[in-house]
């Protein structure tokens, strides 16, 4: 529980909203919660199969949903308190732990309704009685497993690889093949692996009781396996007999980012992030036009949630390249938020895109973009945030400049 509280402390950040500003749209990219190891043979401490979401992981995402309800529903009134399918879109990868995490977060965002349930004592001409031959068995096995007044929120996913999937690597076959191939090649990590091995080779050997011959053969794959084992068991509260020093832990943590980003490559990252940000940006543009045109309808999209993995977040941060920004690792339930605000007085007078600003956070910490900083400086503004058009200019500067779909579908030849 202590770790869950510490994780939530990242998102309970200060509010930077000025008077007269109103929240218009939110894009949330979030990693799944704590999971079982994908490599350990002893899974008894996790109580779930390999790679699956643990109880702690479910609680993590549930609490994120509960906090977002307080912020986006109760405080900002961005969306309705009862699920409205026109207002929110939730997409997850096809990986089970990401899907489980999505449902856990939605239970926090949209808790069970308070109205009473229908039962067989309530007369209703629209609900004729049904004769069930196995009523007793159904009551025992099905009805008792249901949560009263549960709100069913759809989580959209692509069960098979599809180029229209903007969230995961399989949506861009060329990048997926390139990454899979590059991740196996030692030369991918040239320039960084020697330093990492100098720090971690002997500690990993001691932690696993390796022989000297095994220690000498440790490579980047061994670091990845050790990282998975150490962080999954540590989150479960299992004390390791070998204690890494703070410096060793920093290297072990940061190799996660190295391993997730270097194999993707610059072009691969451009393709992935161009796809990933395209629909949220277009949805923000649509929302801006609704507000500028005076559209008062509540039945429009204003919240997108992408439930993904550490690689989706780490590559997004490297792609955006924030100013003076360093992230050591991507812990369970890490989040990147893009919050679109507008000035109500500005909208009523100027009626243009300059009324809209975008605030961005990684695990509760705001980050800045050089394009926005330069534009703000030209306007004589010290604002740390982006005017929306400046953010789009930053994206346009970094995105893949060719035909994304064509590039994703071209054969990978190695």
From TrEMBL:
UniProt keyword list: Hydrolase, Signal
Q: Indicate the secretion signal residues.
A: 1-19
What domain of life?
A: Eukaryota
Which GO terms fall under molecular function for this chain's record? phosphatase activity
SUPFAM superfamilies per the record? Phosphoglycerate mutase-like
| InterPro entries reported for this sequence | Acid_Pase_AS (IPR033379), His_Pase_clade-2 (IPR000560), His_PPase_superfam (IPR029033), Histidine_acid_phosphatase (IPR050645)
Pfam families per the UniProt record, alphabetical:
His_Phos_2
Q: Which PANTHER family match?
A: 2-PHOSPHOXYLOSE PHOSPHATASE 1, ACID PHOSPHATASE-RELATED
* Annotated protein name in UniProt: Histidine acid phosphatase family protein
Q: Which organism is it from?
A: Stylonychia lemnae
Q: Which gene encodes it?
A: Contig6826.g7293
């Amino acid at each position: 529980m202590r770790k869950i509280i510490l994780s939530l402390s990242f998102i309970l950040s200060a509010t930077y909203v000025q008077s007269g500003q109103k929240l218009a749209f939110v894009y949330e990219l979030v990693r799944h919660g704590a999971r079982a190891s994908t490599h350990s043979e002893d899974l008894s401490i996790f109580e779930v199969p390999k790679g699956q979401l643990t109880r702690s992981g479910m609680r993590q995402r549930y609490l994120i949903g509960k906090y977002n309800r307080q912020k986006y529903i109760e405080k900002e009134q961005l969306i309705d308190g009862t699920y409205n399918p026109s207002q929110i879109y939730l997409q997850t990868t096809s990986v089970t732990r990401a899907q489980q995490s999505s449902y856990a977060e939605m239970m926090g965002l949209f808790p069970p309704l308070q109205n009473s349930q229908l039962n067989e004592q309530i007369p209703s001409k629209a609900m004729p009685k049904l004769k069930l031959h196995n009523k007793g068995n159904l009551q025992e096995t099905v009805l008792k497993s249901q949560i009263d007044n549960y709100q069913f929120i759809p989580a959209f996913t692509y069960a098979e690889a599809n180029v229209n999937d903007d969230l995961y690597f399989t949506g861009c076959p060329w990048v997926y093949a390139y990454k899979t191939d590059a991740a196996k090649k030692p030369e991918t990590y040239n320039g960084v692996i020697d330093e990492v091995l100098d720090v971690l080779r002997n500690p990993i050997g001691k932690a696993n009781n390796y022989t000297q011959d095994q220690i000498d053969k440790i490579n980047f794959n061994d670091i990845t396996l050790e990282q998975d084992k150490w962080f999954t068991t540590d989150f479960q509260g299992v004390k390791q007999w070998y204690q890494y020093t703070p410096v060793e832990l920093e290297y072990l943590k940061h190799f996660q980012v190295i391993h997730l980003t270097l194999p993707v490559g610059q072009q691969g990252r451009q393709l992935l992030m161009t796809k990933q940000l395209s629909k949220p940006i277009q949805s923000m543009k649509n929302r801006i036009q609704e507000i500028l045109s005076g559209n008062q309808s509540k039945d429009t999209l204003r919240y997108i949630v992408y439930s993904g993995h550490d690689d989706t977040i780490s590559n997004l941060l490297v792609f955006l390249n924030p100013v003076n920004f360093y992230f050591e690792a991507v812990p369970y339930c890490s989040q990147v938020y893009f919050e679109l605000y507008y000035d109500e007085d500005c909208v009523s007078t100027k009626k243009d895109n300059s009324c809209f600003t975008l605030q961005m956070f990684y695990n509760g910490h705001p980050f800045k973009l050089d394009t926005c900083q330069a534009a703000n400086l030209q306007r004589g503004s010290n604002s740390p945030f982006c005017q929306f058009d400046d953010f789009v200019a930053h994206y346009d500067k970094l995105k893949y400049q060719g035909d994304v779909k064509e590039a994703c579908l071209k054969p990978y030849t190695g």
